[in-house]
Amino acid sequence: MRRWAYMEGAIQVIDYIERALERLKDWAGRLIEALLGPDAQPEPVPVPVRNDERRRS
């Protein structure tokens, strides 16, 4: 029975650490964005549009 208590405690600690790391990651991202500006978005690649003059006639 004690093993399960240790396992549950270990799982809770791991969950807590994962949540803390996610919060730190989010905080670091917001800090970097505040210091350096928002992430550069890649320019959209224009999609070629077929110009079929025969259809319009």
UniProtKB/TrEMBL annotation:
Protein name in the entry: Uncharacterized protein
Biological source species: Drouetiella hepatica Uher 2000/2452
Superkingdom, taxonomy of origin: Bacteria
